Here is the input.
Amino acid sequence: MKIGICGYGVIGSGVKKLIDEKHQNNEDLEVIKVFDKPFKKDELKELYVNDYKKITENKDIDIVVEAMGGDKFPYEIIKDALKNKKHVVTSNKEVVSLHLDEFNSLAKENKVYFMFEASVGGGIPIINSLIQNRKVNEINHIYGILNGTTNFILTKIEEGLSFDDALKEAQRLGFAEADPTADLEGLDMVRKISILSDIAYNTFIDVNKVEHRGIKGITKEFIEKANKNGLVLKFICESKIKDNYVSLIVEPVLFKKDNIISNTKNEFNCVIFEGKSNDKLAFVGKGAGSLPTASAILSDIYLIKDNNANYLDLSKKVVYCEKNDNDYLELCDDGTFKKAKKENFYARVFME
Amino acid sequence: MKIGICGYGVIGSGVKKLIDEKHQNNEDLEVIKVFDKPFKKDELKELYVNDYKKITENKDIDIVVEAMGGDKFPYEIIKDALKNKKHVVTSNKEVVSLHLDEFNSLAKENKVYFMFEASVGGGIPIINSLIQNRKVNEINHIYGILNGTTNFILTKIEEGLSFDDALKEAQRLGFAEADPTADLEGLDMVRKISILSDIAYNTFIDVNKVEHRGIKGITKEFIEKANKNGLVLKFICESKIKDNYVSLIVEPVLFKKDNIISNTKNEFNCVIFEGKSNDKLAFVGKGAGSLPTASAILSDIYLIKDNNANYLDLSKKVVYCEKNDNDYLELCDDGTFKKAKKENFYARVFME
Here is the structure.
């Protein structure tokens, strides 16, 4: 199969490297065109194209990999590729969370597949596991740590750094972006939990409705106090369905020390789902990074190549509960809780 | 698709219940014959057959579910079903670990599929995740807790019970069999780690070669001493490959308290695999039970129905290292270790 890549950054170049290796091992996979900004031309030589239509309208190309990030431009590229009967594989959670229903319908119409394993949890095979599990299980609860940057920061604060130093360390190691707002305020996890909920509940969540409360006000003292009382602060996303009522939230939550979430450290992610047939199923792994994300894209390419891909049913109408009814608590020095004053930093307590 | 079930115990009857529900929802799945001992005849009425050949040679049946357990009889049934061009789905780790290569070849020859997700880790989707991950990753290390019975016993000892009382409690709750030898001596995990290694390393492991050392000599005092020193005793299986050299072992191992393995409690299983593209990927969930295991079988049925199944490549020749070169240590009262005397209970220390 012939592949065109849009976006030759950390992920796009990782995908090309993996496919080149497979191609050298005589597997029927080959990157034949790459679209990016003109300054990549020298590096890409004859593979370079300066217009994405040279990929989406290219008669020889079977699969378009979108690895650019952002919304507007990727949205046009993906739509154009699907309309031209190319399979699409993307790692872009923003565009997936905003348009999954449209992409899924367009793919079905054009008898090609739209795949997005790499958009949530990097190398953790959560998307395709959910799609398969959904056939035999009624999932009603999903929660976990789906942002490596903020989990890294919280772990470092626990180890003794201040918030600012922990953030700087994350930036130095490439885990946090120069502008870390989407991570710190929870928007990144809003997108990811929305995508997982779409699949699990057979519906399409409006990401703009999802409540999120960030970790910016957190202090080293709060985390120390929690630890002394056998608790660990984690920044998580959570989604529930009961009958047709769905609620989603992203916020800081306190867990008991021996919980699997509490023991998910540094840049690792952990996602747990519960349903009628499976009491509790947890997946833990690195949620980002060039190689894990690129290999998730390659995994999707193999699902297409081996004729193992599926369409989604996103047709269920649900009622979105905007109001979250959790009790928010502040942790007192003696380890007891009191009702939180909204001007202080507060967290929910997850007692499981 | 028409389904025949061989073995109507906890798992087989669970599968029938799930398929009946799907059938009532107008899905194209139906159980039309069930084979078991004569005393099930009254319960099964017109579905009952007294000879497995009435299932394996039945022209209307597309899929045979083998849920009997044991080796000899299931081996004959599975072979016969595959030769008669029926897909086979099983939860029987014994027969899978002993004959996977033969079943895989027979399936390929007859253009049907042999599926066994339910044989390892109950409802945890580890087998099909490994099969998919294997296409894009070079896996070199697999380890974890794959026996719920012994993990339950160790957890209860940690909570204060004696070994004998913990075993009785496991039997009372239905986690341990009347004869728990295969669990306690590690044979159950030998089978499971062999199956996972077959898939991950594209080879076929001789289960009879795998070293295993059980937990029978364990005392409450040993576990208490470990806990006081920040360690947790777990009964695990482990498999490694380097170049073409493979080693497998099942034995008690000490882990640090904040490890994901240490925090896998009661009847939960945890399996971790590491490879070239994925640093570390962990799956945690209930490893047994009627509903999780039956839903894993149903999941395989959907992979066949949706044309999403695959064949395995088990052709790689590896050198099996019988000698395990781990250092075994006894835990001293002061938290230091000394080289183990083989007459005492000893454990390896996993320092990660």
